[in-house]
Amino acid sequence: MRISKFEHYSRNIIVLVVLTFFLLPIVWLLTTAFKLPRDLITVPPVWLGFTPSLVNFDFAINKVNALRFISNSVIISGGTTIASLVLGTLGGYAVARSRLKIVSISSYFFLVLLMIPPVAMLVPFYLLMRDLQLLGTHAAVIILSTCYNAPFVVWLMSRYFASVPAELEEAALVDGTSPFGAFLRVMLPLSIPGLVAAALYCIIFSWNDFIFALLLTNPATKTIPLGIMATFSVSNLSWGNMAALSVFAVLPVLIIAVVLNKYFVQGMTAGATKG
Questions:
Q1: Partners of 232 in the β-ladder
Q2: What domains sit in the chain, N to C, each tagged with a CATH number?
Q3: Which of 61, 143, 182, 241 is the 20 to 30 A CA-CA neighbour of 231?
Q4: Closest CA to 210 of 201, 220, 222
Q5: What pTM does this model have?
Q6: What single DSSP character describes residue 46?
Q7: How far apart are CA 184 and CA 242, in angstroms?
Q8: Chunked in runs of 10, what are the mean pLDDT values of the chain (275 residues)?
Q9: How far apart are the first and last CA of the chain?
Q10: How far apart are CA 125 and CA 120, in angstroms?
């Protein structure tokens, strides 16, 4: 069905307005990160007509040690994602292929776990990590983040595995492949969009996490969100330094999301509609 020129231009204008609304904070963040302190307090604000400077990034790297925060975030996000995918994928496969109805229904129980406010679990986890002598380590945050990410992965992958015909596995078994071999060689390759969607969810959640890292880390294991908080003080609020650190926090996840967007949409759609 052909649309009129009015409808065509109206849609383009609406899309442009929506994009501007969502991209404006990112534009402000990028421009602020390259501004000198004097340009930050100019009235009216100067958006583009200023002299770019790397002084804020120099402060972030050499004074605040942003690279340490980034490396800690990478370790925690990577560990959380790997642990959540391993546990969640195996659990999701077990739920999808179980012949017990109660097991299939239990997949929704994992969604219920996500409804528990993270704050409600902080005190017991803090005491547990203290008793295990893991306070201040990457492992403490990874374990807690995995407890919140793995249930979602179980639910998502169970929906995805359920959409894959069981006949494909049976054919592999007839050819002499073991059950675990059929899982690795048949199910996982066919479920790549779901795995990518689950991985991206885990990365975003753990990378942006603030409250878990605030309670369970020490100065040597702080993540990038805590590094951003380090730019605040009682007597000073440096928007430029905060923006520079925020760029380090936003760009890695933004790049990953753009690259994997196609798989993420496919995986989330299948997880929401299959089964």
A1: 237
A2: 1-53 (no CATH), 56-273 (1.10.3720.10)
A3: 143
A4: 222
A5: 0.83
A6: P
A7: 45
A8: 72 89 86 84 75 87 88 95 94 83 71 79 88 92 92 87 81 82 84 87 90 90 88 72 89 84 63 46
A9: 33
A10: 10
